[in-house]
Amino acid sequence: MPRTTLRQLNGFDETPAKLADSTLVLIDYQNTYTTGVMELDGWQPALDAAARLLDRARREGAKVIHVVNDGGEGTPYDIRAEIGRIHPSVAAADGEPVVVKQAPDAFHGTELGRLVDEAGRGDLVIAGFMTHMCVAFTAQGAFLRGNRPTVVADACATRALPVNGTELDAQGVHLSALATIADLYGVVVPAQEDLG
């Protein structure tokens, strides 16, 4: 029998967000994660899933907000250089804001909260890179400010990480992060088809 989650103990709604009634927050789909030292395992299928999610959100009239991380000039997160730009397959369209952040929680020190509030939708659909870092911490930030996040698992990816002298593979890191989100901070769905 599956263990009880903190969400279940608290009686939180487990219904996935309805995309058309939500704000889609796309996190750090930067070239940073497609090549070089920060290349993620499974980035291409996740990016393809994100492109499908974005296309559906635009068709259904969801609000869309893009987020990028700026690590400064000369870093893999330099948004002034090609390496730090949003991948063309999910680039912002005219009228879609791009929030620049410098911390894993995209609400921290940015205008994301104001943009989410102005959109007037309590439900957020979140996807991006990396699952265990900016996706998880932005879901937490959304939850703590009173929004209801739903994370789309197949549109997220991460990388293997060292721990206690061994390495946890990328799939293990990805699933652990999704489990943390689903335990308290939000609803996790396998794919955009599972959204309302």
TrEMBL record:
SUPFAM superfamilies (UniProt xref): Isochorismatase-like hydrolases (SSF52499)
InterPro entries: Isochorismatase-like_dom, Isochorismatase-like_hydrls, Isochorismatase-like_sf
Any GO MF annotation of the entry: hydrolase activity
Domain Isochorismatase-like: 23-160
Pfam families with a match to the protein in the record: Isochorismatase
Keywords, sorted A to Z: Hydrolase
Superkingdom in the source lineage: Bacteria
Keyword Hydrolase assigned: yes
Record flagged with keyword Hydrolase: yes
Protein name per the record: Cysteine hydrolase
Source organism of the structure: Streptomyces misionensis
Taxonomic classification: Bacteria, Bacillati, Actinomycetota, Actinomycetes, Kitasatosporales
